[in-house]
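> tool_call: predict_assembly(chains=two)
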Amino acid sequence: MDTILTINNLTKKFGYLTAVKDLSFTINKGNVYGILGPNGSGKSTTLGVVLNVVNKTSGDFHWFDGNTTTHNALKKVGAIIERPNFYPYMSAYQNLKLVCRIKGVDYSKIDEKLEVVGLLDRKDSKFQTYSLGMKQRLAIASALLNDPEILILDEPTNGLDPQGIHQIRSLIKEIASNGTTILLASHLLDEVEKVCSHVVVLRKGEKLYSGRVDEMISSHGYLELKADDTDKLVQFLEAKKMFGKIKVEDGLITAFLDEPMDAKSVNQLMFENGITLTHLVKRKESLEEQFLQLTDNN
Amino acid sequence: MLRLLKLELQKLLLNRTSKVLIFISFILPFTVLILSSIKINFFGFFTLELGELGIFNFPIIWHITTFFASYFKFFFAIVVVSMIGNEYSNKTIKQNLIDGLSKKEFILSKFYTIVFFSLLATVLISLASFFIGLYYSSYTEVNIIFRETEFLLAYFVKLVGFFSLCLFFGMLLKRSAFALGFLFILYIVEWIVFGLISWKADMEIAEKIQNFFPLKSMYKLIDQPFQRIMITKFPDNGDLAYDYGVHASEIIIVLAWTALFIFLSFRLLKKRDL
């Protein structure tokens, strides 16, 4: 598989504060990656380093096969960091023309990409007259101008209203479905869960996990159970070794599985042991629960 | 190179403020020059004709026009500091780098723009001086016309040097107003240092050292022409004689400052986290 970005033991210190600590991960073509972490966990700093705006303290990174300089590699990358930064006195079209000049892209792409984000009819309006949602969409159009190998988005829905968030998300999904590699940094877990196949979890600049979203915690999910005789059910569950932690809350029993097991065989097992369940649901942990579990453990 | 220049010209010419300032810095010196070259009749009381003073004679005209025109560099200096200040306040410098401009290219695009406008100013001032000279000058032999055209070179070097200093202050302080303020502070500091040296040592040494200071060395490229005008009026007065020529050493000092300012701007950007 083609690698797009390789980061090895990257460290960034701001004075005494270590923003990124010994971080390593690889980004492969065709996947949608999420960088997860609470505010101040080093997401934006990491992106800043690979995007040539923040100087690394130690470690290294390289784009693609490592034979191109960072600024040339960035011509094949589309990136938006934090807020959309454009020249307020220029129109959308003029701003994108400037980006074309920097990236060496043909001007004919401008209208095409403005169409994608739905700003074509406002292309001659000055940037300063745009709403935040429109600015963010223009930023996406600008990042797409060169048909990038990878699209990097840092908190793309920050500060937007629900409608704006929805527009940006559907835009990201649409881009991802065309096979573009995406790297999305966010602290909004449902956002990452909805679009990403892989995640890198950071906390205080350290990597806690990187890999597929569904393998983030080696867990077989959990069961929600209810029976008329709650105590008997709890005793039974505690006796069996395939169940780990058991919680009882308002008569609803939550049992975590230590072994793979489907709902059908659970039901059968209970019935054979004389317990009639009134409620049985098998669930997987949501990303939010997995994330909290991962960040709480340490 | 052309790509970088076009990039910066687009940024400047679409901005109304810088467009107006550029216009002023180029048009104003010409208006002044042309107005001063025509005969002005003050309601029949008296006529003022500067041409009669002989200041539009070749070769002194090169000296005089470049000296006065260089005062208009302050308008373009505002453009230079604001073209850095705006990039920081709009955070577009960050976006430019993310889009794939290298830090070196960023500084170079600014520097090329400086060179471009300095060259344009030099060409315009030489054409204007040439035609006014042809019209007024008492001597129009080819070898006299082209004597002392080194003032044009000095003018060009002076502009490039001064704008590079502005560029460096802009990069250092990120704010246009602070950068302009710093220019004024530097001016004062140069005089204070000069004062200190002449107090501790003597005037002559102080003057020699002062000629190496950034602002003074740029000013020194084209010496004031007033004394020279006096000399042409009263050739017998030997006391007024002074060295007004353009010297290679002066040009080298300013070029060295220019190189240093551009290099420091680049270093500053390279070390800085945006």
